[in-house]
Amino acid sequence: MAIKVFTLRQFKGGTVEQAHKLLEQLRAAGTFRPGFVSGQTLVSTEDPNRLLVISTWTDAKGWKAWRASEKRKEISQQIAELLESPEHVEVFQLARKEPEGVDMA
Question: Do 80 and 26 contact (CB within 8 A), yes or no?
Answer without folding.
Answer: no
